[in-house]
Amino acid sequence: MKRILVTGALGQIGSELILKLRNIYGAHNVIATDIRQNDSEAAQSGPFEVLDVTDFKQMMKIATKYQVDTIVHLAAILSASAEAMPVFAWNLNMGGLLNALETARELKLQFFTPSSIGAFGPSTPKDNTPQDTIMRPTTMYGVNKVAGELLADYYFYKYGVDTRGLRFPGLISHVTEPGGGTTDYAVDIYYKAVQEKKYTSYIAKGTFMDMMYMPDALNAIIDLMEADSSRLVHRNSFNVTAMSFDPEGIAASIRMQIPDFKLDYDVDPCRQQIAESWPNSLDASAAMQEWGFHYEFDLDKMTEDMISKLRQKLNLEIPKP
């Protein structure tokens, strides 16, 4: 990667990935795009273009203008939001992906797009879910992700496009607030913990889901994209993981930092049904073997960092021991 176009750059992953890429490859070599611009550091720290990913001509125009060699396609509607707007989700998620792949094909670009544990379904093995297994999702988001994985594979085998992808678990970040994903409770719970010392979970007790802290996710994207292509067997998409917990587990970790934190429940049937269709934990051995995937943050290390960063972000006093 030398000159990189990022779609959906102001979303959960993009807001942090843009800054990391600019730090590594140079601010002028990372072109951020999104449906609208804001005053965030991601939008203001380097080249930015307004882009609707369903507009193929505009995507081609921007990619050509900046002579990019890589597309990182992040623009998508997330799981819970996609269930509320399934037709819109299909049109944006699949139409945008197809446009990005066509741009990569025509301009001979390297290509990355993330998949998700949402690509699995109720019939997938729940524990230590294999890299290669049955994938019959029951959500529009999941259908989009399975179709996206297959489409990226098709562009590699049919056209030789260097497509790569990661099957992300839930991602936890202190930079961007929750944005419509089923696993977003694991972000929101930290905000409520430092602000109110209590949280009402829409995910039921005992519901385990795979998670990863954003710094590890960003490193995984870059490591995969810089990996020797000849080593990659799977390409689209590698299971990656760092931890698996239920709401009680994350609450226990928070109490190590905020002892009087309280957790109760008001389960959202829609998001609970989605969560129950996903794996409890993933097998990331293929990623480890093929390009050296690793992670640094376990649950307690992530909790300590999240609470520290959120107190700074929200200008909250650190309690005296």
Brief account:
With 321 residues, this protein is α/β, with parallel strands linked by helices.
Order of helices and strands: EHEHEHEHHEEHEEEHEEHEEHEHHH
Strand tally: 14
Rg from alpha-carbon coordinates: 19 Å
List the domain count as a whole number.
Answer: 2
CATH architecture label name of the largest domain: 3-Layer(aba) Sandwich
Residue fraction in strands:
5-15%
Could you give me the name of the CATH homologous superfamily of the largest domain?
A: NAD(P)-binding Rossmann-like Domain
Distance between the termini: 47 Å
Count of runs of 4 or more consecutive helical residues: 12
Characterise the protein shown here:
α2 (41-44) links the parallel β2 (30-34) and β3. The protein folds into 2 domains: 4-170 and 213-239, NAD(P)-binding Rossmann-like Domain (Rossmann fold, 3-Layer(aba) Sandwich); 171-211 and 243-280 and 298-313, UDP-galactose 4-epimerase, domain 1 (Alpha-Beta Complex). The chain is an alpha/beta fold and 321 residues long. Helices cover 43% and strands 15% of the residues. The model has no long low-confidence stretch (mean pLDDT 94). The strands form 4 sheets. It has a 6-stranded parallel sheet, with helices on both faces. A 3-stranded parallel sheet has the order 6-8-12. Strands 9-11-13 form a 3-stranded mixed sheet.
